[in-house]
Predict the structure.
Amino acid sequence: MIPETVIQDAAHEITRQAAIRIPEDYRTGIRDIRAGEQGALSCFVLDTMVDNWDAAVADQRPMCADTGLPRYYVKFGNEAVIQGGFVALERALRRATAHATVSVPLRPNRVHPLTREDHNNNVGSRAPEIEYSVEPDADWLDITTVHKGGLFGTDYRMLFPGDGWDGIKKMFLDTMIQFGRRGLACQPAIVGVGIGGSKDTCMVLGKQAACLRVVGDRHPDPEIAKLEDELKELGNQIGMGPMGFVGNSMVVDCHIEIAHTHTGGMPVSIHSFCLSSRRAVVRIYDNGSTEFRTDPKWFTTYHRREEVE
Amino acid sequence: MTKAQQKIIELDAPASAERLAALNIGDVVYINGLVYTGREGVYRRILDQGEKPPTDLAKLSNINFHCSPAASIDSDGNYTVGAVTATASFRFSKWMERWFNLTDCKVVIGKGGMPQSDYRDYFVPKGAVYLTTVGYGTGALLGRGIKHVPKAYWVDELGIAQAIWILEVEHFGPFLVESDIRGNSLFEESKQEIDKNIEALYAGLKKPALRRYGETTKRTDEVI
Ligand code: SF4
């Protein structure tokens, strides 16, 4: 049985880690893209970002003053039992968020959308968001926090089957270019592309593809993996780098997730996870022990299954 | 691998005309001395509503930072600023000319710059420059440069995000010179260069079945 207090402490810890420490895979991705960068200004921006990440860890302060919107992705092992049940879990995550807002501190970014009232704790109606998935034959609980910033770099379109791969490429270019200028998207980013599903699943999938897969990961379907490579390359051929300067680093990596969709349509969503690609994960075992990491391992074979069991 | 090799400049506040004249777009600047924050809340209150500035800003500094600090005020009235990040400046265009006239501000620090026409119309006549933050997620580095917060004005009236924060800074940066006193713009220069390649990227991609509303030439057009 997993105690509520363990969940709250662990959630607080990943929230702190996410704000301060850039995940290693993203850092390596930036190092690799920097090695091929030709633009002098783009090089300068990338070097400065690395300095900033070092300063954040050394001083234990958030890497970006915009600490994004903290949210959680919970994966339940099918055999996991939580003391107090789901209600206790959600209570622990909301409390951890409010506590971390003061202790880290995080910027109190969450406001009422109309009155703009701020509770000063990043908690509110449907905030932080909590999304769920399950995994068979496991008694652990995985909690991932993502602090996605950025008001720019996201788009959704209903394309049609006949638009095909060209349509997706065109939309990809549009999104990268329009939000890349002046660096609105704080690129180079991990770009997530959701294809298919309903409008809402399409948006959710694309966001998860950006935020819950690590740099270097490829989709198990070789055809989709090829498309990921192709889009990454296309983005880096635009001629634009960080801050919209001349360069060739727009896309640190590209991840595509698909969902079966309406026979007449091909919804597509694109999401950019910025230079502060903040995510941290904890696995909590049935005996209350914890293990921290930065790879969410969200998209499992079970999660992507197509067949009727 | 190209080595980043911009000119690096330590700039004392208030910034002198000679030092500003020597800046060129793409130079890297660090600031030492006093800077103040001010954005739409301050501009609206002073320039639109005619309120008197709470202190003689011209005497204090000539560097205006478009910023909302992650700041707090403890029970003894002491100020703490953790990380700082600039806010997008293009929204403040309409106030800049009057702001320059009133405060003798010569350096604007912000995020993402302004249209080049703003530099030509408002900045160049005053000998003012625009510095942009880098990245833009360099909150930790910028936070390091703030040594002391001597004073904050209008916290009650405008809230933490919009108040005027006086920041005492040391090696505060890095910033990039986005517009120099001649009105050149780094973003504009990059845009010109990048735009040469844009059409070629789309060459050969077939048009989608449904156009977007903005892609049509007239608002009365259908999107199909
Ligand atoms: S988009 Fe990311 S890096 Fe840019 S300001 Fe927001 S959180 Fe920071």
